[in-house]
Amino acid sequence: MNGTVRGTAAPRAGDDRREANAATVLRAVLDHGPVARSGVSRLTGLSPAAVSRQTVDLLRLELLVERPELAVAAPGVRGRPQLPLDIDDRRLAVAGLHVGLPYSTFALLDLRGRVLVRQELPNGGRRGRAVLKALLERVPRLLAAAATGPAAGRRVLGLGAVTGGAVDAERGMTVRHEPLGWREVPLRELLERATGLPVRVDNHARALAAAEVLFGDPAARRSMVQLFVGHVVDASISVAGTVHQGPPSVTGDGGHLPVPGSSARCHCGRRGCLSVAASDDTLFAAAVEQGVIARPDRQLLLAAVRAGDPRADALVRERAVVVGGALALLADVVNPDLLVLTETFSVADPAYLAAVREEFALRSHLHRDASLLVAQRFGADALAVAACAPVLGELYARPLPGF
Ligand SMILES: [Zn+2]
């Protein structure tokens, strides 16, 4: 497997339109394929000649493929039927690394965002440079192993790397990640050196939003707030298909929204912050304290909930109420078209999403119902898809390399 370097240099001015048209064609085929060139022209407003020109490039780059087996001659139209175009999901792959607290996730995806490989890498309680060192050793081996696994024969275009905290995507740095103990970590440079692949780095909440914009509900491309609730709690916003970056490299921090009635102490020094009231740490600790689970572990609590343990159910519903209230605040301030929640239990079980929605509808001033509120669609693959989103986002925005 060898990487294709997608130049980060700015394209020459005259090529801007060509690049934008290619992105438009690729995106239309992702959304509507398999679709004939005439269909792409209709969908995008590009001239048939422009669509044909871009298609030549995109076929050559193995991003698109023709599907002759799906060709049908239009009634009354003479000549050869047009060959439908589709995303080529068999020859290329994108790699990703999500660096989390209890574990990191390595993944390989096809161009439709479907997971080919997903592997969780426990951090073993390590923090700081030790986490980084272990990953820099592990990721090249996982890439090599993938060459003989489900991604065999595919060319890997690049590696996405996402972490929580403040991430400067432009400089490829994790600027600050308190729980992990990282400061000014040049993640892009280190991973490029270790893997030989081009690397793109981003914050994980922004990457989750980017994944939703690429492969999710069409409303996500109008405007969206995405709330992540896990060991950390953070939010991201996208408008018109672009995920907000924010100065300086911080998306915004929903973690310190006040939660009425909560007195838990936050690391910021105050009490009743969302990042503590709703975090996995708080939920799992309460479950351990009540004897529901033996140790703070997501899978154990999921199992207890699935087994119908009423104490587990009550704890998860309690958090659903906290999360529903926070989402109502966010929705009232931003008024997005779509509100996406990434939280273990509401993703796994519609009953808990219903509990979040019920509280949301009760609290929101703008929304009498919770129809705009959905659970993140990638399920257990969410972090894998988010990890690859920086590379896939770049690919769909600027598909033509080599200017
Ligand atoms: Zn706080």
TrEMBL record:
Check the record and name the Gene3D superfamilies matching this protein. 3.30.420.40, Winged helix-like DNA-binding domain superfamily/Winged helix DNA-binding domain
Q: Which Pfam families match?
A: ROK
Q: What residue ranges are annotated as transmembrane?
A: none
InterPro entries in the record, alphabetically?
Answer: ATPase_NBD (IPR043129), ROK (IPR000600), WH-like_DNA-bd_sf (IPR036388), WH_DNA-bd_sf (IPR036390)
Q: Which family does it belong to?
A: Belongs to the ROK (NagC/XylR) family.
* The protein's name in its UniProt record: Putative NagC family transcriptional regulator
